[in-house]
Amino acid sequence: MATAHGKLTKIQITAKDISPYTKNSQLERAASTHDTTGYAPTGDAKTFSGGTKEAKFTCSGVYDNTVSVGPRLVLVGLEGTSMAIIRNVEGIGTGKPNEAFNAVLEKYVETNPHDDMVTWSADFQVTGPITVTALP
Questions:
Q1: pTM value?
Q2: pLDDT for 55-102, tens place per residue?
Q3: Nearest Cα residue to 85 out of 33, 130, 28, 30
């Protein structure tokens, strides 16, 4: 069985690489379903049809106050804005998967615990399709 290590993941938001500042990311895909069960269903089992697709993207990491291109500068103040995102879950290289999509920044959070590092997180709602290709 082949595996991929998460440390290889690359994330670009509006063409800015935030990978060095990101510890976790998740792309969650879903679809709505519609109950199509009629009277007297076979075996008393409901039936369903698939509907429209949607996706959410989240990412988070450790705040870095020494950089001039980190997530804070890319995301703060842009809540409600649609942004171009590229996600390379296996890193960069020929034949590796490339996911490109637009997503609206729903929330940006900075967390400041008194006994740990400052962290950040961002939640996005994907708008439109996710285009999956292989890197050349």
A1: 0.89
A2: 999 999 998 877 777 888 899 999 999 999 999 999 999 999 999 999
A3: 130
Answer CATH for 6-29+50-134 from 2.20.28, 2.40.30, 1.10.10, 2.30.30:
2.40.30
In this prediction, residue 128 carries a pLDDT of 96
In angstroms and rounded to an integer, the radius of gyration of the C-alpha atoms of the chain is 19
Identify the pLDDT of residue 83: 97
**118 within 8 A of 111, measured Cβ to Cβ:** yes
Query: pLDDT at position 6, please?
Result: 87
Q: What residues does each domain of the chain span?
A: 6-29+50-134
Q: In which residue are the tokens 């296996």 written?
A: 90
**H helical segments located in the chain:** 71-75
The answer to whether 72 and 39 have CB atoms below 8 angstroms apart is no
Which residues are within 8 A (CB) of 10 and not within 5 positions of it... i.e. 6 or more apart? Answer: 17, 19, 86, 87, 88, 91, 92
Amino acid letter at 134?
A
